[in-house]
Description:
Elements: H1 9-12, H2 19-29, E1 34-40, E2 45-50, H3 51-66, E3 75-79, H4 84-95, E4 99-102, H5 109-118, E5 121-126, H6 129-136, E6 147-150, E7 166-169, H7 170-176, E8 194-200, E9 208-213, H8 214-228, E10 235-238, H9 245-258, E11 261-264, H10 271-278, E12 282-285, H11 287-301, H12 305-326, H13 337-357, E13 365-368, H14 375-383, E14 388-393, E15 400-403, E16 416-417, E17 422-425, E18 430-434, E19 441-442, H15 446-452, E20 453-454, E21 458-467, E22 473-478, E23 483-484, E24 490-491, H16 493-500, E25 506-512, E26 520-525, H17 527-536, H18 550-563, E27 576-579, H19 598-604, H20 606-614
Parallel strand pairs: 1-11, 3-4, 3-5, 5-6, 6-7, 10-11, 10-12, 12-13, 13-14, 26-27
Antiparallel strand pairs: 1-2, 8-9, 9-19, 14-15, 15-16, 17-18, 18-21, 20-21, 21-22, 23-24, 25-26
Helix pairs in contact: 2-3, 2-4, 2-9, 3-4, 5-6, 8-9, 12-13, 12-14
Amino acid sequence: MVETxxxxxxDALASVRTLAELLTWRVAQTPxxxxxxxxxxxxxxxAPVSWAEVGRQVAQMAAALDTLNLERGSRVAILLxxxxxxxIVDQAAxxxxxxxxxxxxxxxxxxxAYIVADSDAAVVVAQTPAQWRxxxxxxxxxxxxxxxxxxxxxxxxxxxxxxAPRVDTLRDWLAAAPQTTATxxxxxPEPDGLAALVYTSGTxxxxxxxxxxxxxxxxxxKATLQRVAPTAQDVFLSFLPLSHTxxxxxxxxxxxxxxCCVAHARSVAQLSEDLKTVRPTILISVPRxxxxxxxxxxxxxxxxxxxxxxxxxxxxxxxxxxxxxxQLPVPTDAPPAWRDALVWPLLDRLVARxxxxxxxxxxxxxxxxxxALPPAIAHCFxxxxxxxVQGYGxxxxxxxxxxxxxxxxxxxxxxxxxPGVEVRIGExxxxxxxxxxxxxxxxxxxxxxAAAFVDGDWLRTGDQAGIAPDGxxxxxxxxxxxxxxxxxxxxxxxxxxQAITSDPLFEQAYAFGDNRPFIACIxxxxxxxxxxxxAELQLTPDAADSLDAAPARQAALERIRALTxxxxxxxxxxxxxxxxxxxxxxxxxLTPTLKLxxxxxxxRFQAEIEALYRR
Length: 615
């Protein structure tokens, strides 16, 4: 009998060296298979788009880009919502040996203008004329910008201005370009050429451009392919911004490598409906989505002792079954396994299946990354049969460093390092990373690049960790003062606090939002400033309830938003708590050098913070 060896997915990709080659390879492998599901508003249904059609549209866009005679490595800034259009522009830029600069579609104009200028972008592709007008009105010069393309038609022609870039609709621009069905004639990118310039928050308050090469991203795709193991039968539902490296690698390039089909959710508001209609088998998410569903479930259970008991029992039994299957510790007072096995079919039918139906009913893996998954959330969903696997990464590592697998899952950890990725514990228990997915450096930031590495090529993550003998990694805390929201955004709080206290009304400020859905802050008001503000609002400054009055909080928040307008939208505080009692070293809220004691502040204002996020 002759044994046959089935090649692994990474073996099939051995000849693929760049992301441009990856798409070309996929189109050749499965031209007629469904690459994407696009929602048809007229028919109110999802329509498939084949790989061959994707290849045709990319070739057309790449041919149009070539008419601009851009230099190799020119930056193409993409300000589009998630969808096939964004994919086409990204792939065309890659095919033309240009560098995509993904922008967050909901970011504020000042932040976007900074990135367009800092990246020396030659082309900007935006969704609406209003977006571009807001960016241009910031007043930042764009000396390298030659072409602006708008998906939506302007209501009036854009007047030509001396020295300003040409502005066209994407449709008219494509129609004027040479028609082609072949890939661009321009030589493709090299493996060490840039595949993306992804901007992430820095300690100076201005975002830094992370330089990721084709080799960086493709090596991470191939390594992730081995850990998550998607197949051509899998369907992804994509809703995280394509400006995030997590979604770009795991929810965009990975499905191309595996030949999966991707549906782009219409909006966060319609996500629940899209889950039930698309019925994905793989979901790439951040903890915030699971937190929302968890909150809805708790709300539905409120007031019903029987439903609460049934839910808690199903969760506990399911969690014990999961622990036994994964060979994780089970509580010593747990019932025997046979008893859990006996009651599970009933609990599965009454509790687990209705929950899983909210996700479409056929999820086989749900990846959570970008921030830590709270243990209560993990126990709940994993116990009820939703196979959540937690991973860890950062933009600078393309991004995945480590991840659990469906059959090797300890949600208290971030799993083991991906194949080809080396990890170690450095000074102050810092997790350090080395491997082919680690960035080339920060764009035009040599000093920041040098500071990011130690011993040559070991990247400093800024996170403290422990590595068990079996290779599992556990994150213990942070070295750098960085907030990571439950949506995965990273913000340096010191920069926010400095901006806020530049207003005399605010003597002290404490920004927070770790593992929360948004940034908020607590501010200490100056006596004179508060007296004046209270008079304007017709409040009694010394009254106990004046600080919590809605007009006072709203007025303070408006000033804070004005002070932080230069920060990315996700870094701007969306709620505030007002106080008049100064923080001092004697109250243990400041260090002797007058730095904030964040843990003490969090404990001191715990009730106010919890109430703030419940509003």
